[in-house]
Design goal:
- The chain is of the alpha/beta class.
- The chain folds into 2 domains: 38-170 and 177-300 and 511-530, Aldehyde Dehydrogenase, Chain A, domain 1 (3-Layer(aba) Sandwich); 304-490, Aldehyde Dehydrogenase, Chain A, domain 2, CATH 3.40.309.10.
- The longest helix is centred in the N-terminal third of the chain and has 28 residues, at 140-167.
- α4 crosses α5 and α10 crosses α11 (343-358).
- β15 (405-406) and β16 (412-413) form a beta hairpin.
- It is built from 15 helices and 23 strands.
- The protein has helices spanning 30-43, 84-103, 106-121, 125-136, 140-167, 198-210, 224-236, 251-259, 273-285, 314-326, 343-358, 378-392, 447-457, 471-480, 519-523, and strands spanning 47-49, 51-53, 56-58, 63-68, 71-80, 176-183, 188-192, 214-218, 244-246, 264-270, 295-299, 304-308, 336-342, 397-401, 405-406, 412-413, 416-420, 436-442, 460-461, 463-467, 487-490, 507-508, 527-534.
- The chain is globular and about 90 Å long.
- The strands form 7 sheets. A 7-stranded mixed beta sheet has the order 14-17-18-13-12-20-21, with helices on both faces. A 5-stranded parallel beta sheet has the order 9-8-7-10-11, with helices on both faces.
- The structure holds nicotinamide-adenine-dinucleotide (NAD) and 5-oxo-L-norvaline.
Length: 551
C-alpha cells in the first residue's frame, strides 16, 4: 500500500498568531443583519444533536430537550443521553485512532486546527454566534468574543505554542545525538466541558488532540447546540474519525464509565470545583487499575474579588464593577462577586452605581439593548433566588439594587447588589455563578487588614482586581494577594483574559492552574521520551583509572 503520510524536509514555522478582531454588530450593520437572520433561522428549527463516535452519528436512546434560557418554551434541539454502549464505543474509537493520529506529523495536526480557526472566523462564524446566543443566552458582543474570537484564538495560539514545545530539544555531546520525542499520552483523554464558553468547549478536547492524543468529549448538555457546530468544524477541517468522539449525556454516568477504563490517560476538565473533586476521587479509587498515572487538569470555580484602595479612580472602579459582575449574567468563572470598597470612595459612587445597575436591560439577547440575558437553567435560577432570599433575611445585609427573579418567559435574575458589614458572610465566600455581587464597605484606614481578609475569606484563587492609584498600595496588594489569584488585574476588571496576553487559570480550589491556551497547558498532554543515539559506542568496559580494558 502507498504511504499516505505526507513528509516534508525542513523545519516548520507555524504562522505567528494574532487575536481575531472583534466585530461590532452595531444595529443595522451588515454583520448584525446577517447574524439576526441566522438567529431566526436556527431559532425556528429543532435540531437533532447526535453523538459523533468514530465519525458516525448516533441518535438513539433517551432524549432530552435543549431550550433557550431566555425563552424556555423554545425547544432548539434534542440530545440523547449516552448509554453504556455508546461510552464504550467512544473509548474504543479513541483507542483505535490513537496510533495513527499520534504518528501523524505534528504540523499536519496543527494544520487541521489552523483550518478550523478559519472556519470559525469565516463560514461558521454566524452559526457559532447564533447557537451560543440562543442556547447559552449570550448577547451579540459576548457571543462574538467567545464563540468566534476566543475559539479561533485557541486554535491559532495553541498551534504556535505546539511548535515551541516540539522545538525544545536537548544538547548533545560529540559522538552522540539526544532527541526529545514529545509523545502524546498512552491511552485516551476524557474532556468534560462547561456550559458557559463555547471557546472552552472547543479548546478542551482539541488541545490534547493537537498534541497527538485521542479524546472522548462530553460537552455540557446546556451548550449542546453550539458544541454540535464545533464538532462539525473539527470534521470539516479534516480531523480524522475517532480522534475526538463526542458523547452527550449525564456527566456523572459518562465519567464513571470512562474513568473506569484502564486506558484513561488524562482528564481535561473545566467546570465546578465539586465536580472536579469528584472526578479526582474517582480516579484515585481506580488508581491501581490504570496502566499509567492519568494527568488531571481542571479549571474550576471562583469567588473573585475587587479590592479598592482609597486612592482608586472612582469611575474606573464603577465600570469594572458593572462589567465584571453582570456581563453574561455573572456566569463567567472570572466574574466579580465580592468587592471591598473604602467608605470615602463608596459614598462617591454608591448612588450612581445603583442607578447604573438598575438601568441594565435584562431580556432577549437578540435585542441590541439587552446587556443581561437569562441564567442558564431553572436550577441556577432557584439557587440564586435562595441565596437572595437568605441574604435579604440577614441583618448584616442591605439590598442595594435588584433582588428579583422572573421565570415566566426565561430564567431572568435581575442584577443584584447587597452591601454587607459582615465580610465573612456566605455571600462573600460561596460561588453562586450569577448576577449577584456583595460589597463590603470598610473604613479607609483598614486597607492592610482588608487585603488579608480578601486573601483568606474564600477557598478559591481564580481572579482578582486591585484598584489604586498610589503605587505603594498596588505593591502591597500584589504582595499580600500573591496566592489569592492566578489572574491579578491592576486597575482593570477581573474578566476578559485575552489569548497570548493573559493565559487563564487559578489555584487553590479554583483548579490546577495550567494556564489554558499557553505552552504550559499543552505540556500536560505530552509524555516525553528521550532517545540517545551513540555514534561511537564504547568498546572497552574498564574505567580510565583501570586502564581501558577491551572485552
Ligand atoms: N476556571 C475556569 O477556567 C472556568 C471556566 C468556565 C467555568 N468554570 C466553572 O464552571 C462552573 C459552571 O459551569 P457548569 O455549570 O457547566 O459546571 P458543572 O461542573 O456543573 O458542569 C461541567 C461539566 O461537568 C459535567 N458534570 C456535571 N456533574 C458531573 C459529575 N458528577 N461527574 C462528571 N461530570 C459532571 C457537566 O455535564 C458538564 O459537562 C462554575 O463553577 C465556573 O466557575 C471555570
Ligand atoms: N477566560 C474568561 C473566563 C472563563 C471562565 O468562565 C475570562 O477571562 O473572563
Amino acid at each position: 500500500m502507498a504511504n499516505t503520510k505526507a513528509s516534508i524536509a525542513g523545519s516548520v514555522r507555524v504562522p505567528t498568531p494574532a487575536n481575531e478582531p472583534v466585530r461590532d454588530y452595531a444595529p443595522g450593520s451588515p454583520e448584525a443583519v446577517r447574524l439576526r437572520a441566522e438567529i431566526d433561522r436556527i431559532g425556528g428549527q429543532v435540531r437533532e444533536l447526535p453523538h459523533v463516535i468514530n465519525g458516525e452519528r448516533h441518535f438513539t436512546g433517551r432524549q432530552e430537550a435543549v431550550v433557550s434560557p431566555h425563552e424556555h418554551a423554545r425547544v432548539l434541539g434534542h440530545i440523547t443521553l449516552a448509554e453504556e454502549k455508546q461510552v464504550r464505543a467512544a473509548v474504543d474509537a479513541s483507542l483505535a485512532a490513537r496510533h495513527d493520529w499520534s504518528m501523524t506529523p505534528w504540523w499536519e495536526r496543527a494544520a487541521i486546527f489552523l483550518r478550523a480557526a478559519d472556519l470559525v472566523t469565516g463560514k461558521y462564524r454566524d452559526e457559532l454566534n447564533a447557537t451560543t446566543m440562543l442556547g447559552q443566552s449570550k448577547t451579540y458582543h459576548q457571543a462574538e468574543v467567545d464563540a468566534a474570537c476566543e475559539l479561533a484564538d485557541f486554535f491559532r495560539y495553541n498551534a504556535h505554542s505546539a511548535a515551541a514545545i516540539y522545538d525544545q530539544q536537548p544538547t548533545s555531546d560529540p559522538g552522540q545525538w539526544n532527541i526529545m520525542d514529545h509523545r502524546g499520552l498512552e491511552g485516551f483523554v476524557l474532556a468534560i466541558t462547561p456550559f458557559n464558553f463555547t471557546a472552552i468547549a472547543g479548546n478542551l478536547p482539541s488541545t490534547p488532540a493537537l498534541m497527538g492524543n485521542t479524546v472522548v468529549w462530553k460537552p455540557s448538555e446546556k451548550s449542546a447546540l453550539s458544541s454540535d457546530v464545533v464538532m462539525r468544524v473539527f470534521e470539516e477541517a479534516g480531523l480524522p474519525p475517532g480522534v475526538i468522539n463526542l458523547v452527550h449525556g449525564d456527566g456523572q454516568s459518562v465519567a464513571d464509565q470512562a474513568l473506569a477504563s484502564e486506558h484513561l490517560a488524562g482528564v481535561s476538565f473545566t467546570g465546578s470545583t465539586a465536580v472536579f473533586r469528584s472526578l479526582w476521587k474517582t480516579t484515585a479509587r481506580h488508581l491501581d487499575s490504570y496502566r499509567a498515572y492519568p494527568r488531571l487538569v481542571g479549571e474550576t470555580g471562583g469567588k473573585n474579588a475587587i479590592v479598592a484602595h482609597p486612592s482608586a479612580d472612582p469611575e474606573a472602579l464603577l465600570v469594572a464593577l458593572v462589567r465584571s459582575a453582570f456581563e453574561y449574567q455573572g456566569q463567567k468563572c472570572s466574574a466579580a462577586s465580592r468587592a471591598y470598597i473604602p467608605r470615602s470612595l463608596w459614598s462617591r459612587i454608591e448612588d450612581r452605581f445603583a442607578d447604573t445597575v438598575a438601568g441594565l436591560r435584562v431580556g432577549d439577547v437578540a435585542e441590541h439593548e439587552t446587556f443581561v440575558g437569562a441564567v442558564i437553567d431553572a436550577a441556577s435560577c432557584t439557587r440564586l433566588e435562595q441565596a437572595i432570599t437568605e441574604a435579604k433575611s440577614l441583618d448584616s445585609h442591605r439590598l442595594l439594587v435588584g433582588g428579583t427573579v422572573r421565570r415566566e418567559t426565561g430564567w431572568f435574575v435581575d442584577p443584584t447588589v447587597f452591601v454587607t458589614d459582615d465580610p465573612t458572610a456566605f455571600t462573600m465566600t460561596r460561588e453562586f455563578f450569577g448576577p449577584l455581587l456583595t460589597v463590603h464597605v470598610y473604613e479607609d484606614g483598614d486597607w492592610t487588614n482588608i487585603l488579608s481578609l480578601a486573601d483568606n475569606t474564600s477557598a478559591y484563587a481564580l481572579t482578582c482586581s486591585i484598584f489604586a492609584t498610589e503605587r505603594a498600595a498596588v505593591s502591597e496588594a500584589l504582595s499580600v494577594l500573591r496566592d489569592a489569584a492566578g489572574m491579578t488585574y491592576v486597575n482593570d476588571k477581573p474578566t476578559g483574559a485575552l489569548m497570548g496576553r493573559q493565559s487563564f487559570g487559578g489555584g487553590r480550589a479554583s483548579g490546577t492552574n495550567d494556564k489554558t491556551g499557553s505552552p504550559l497547558a499543552l505540556q500536560r498532554w505530552v509524555s516525553g521520551r528521550y532517545i540517545k543515539e551513540n555514534m561511537n559506542p564504547d568498546l572497552a568496559w574498564g574505567y580510565p583509572y583501570m586502564g581501558r580494558t577491551g572485552s
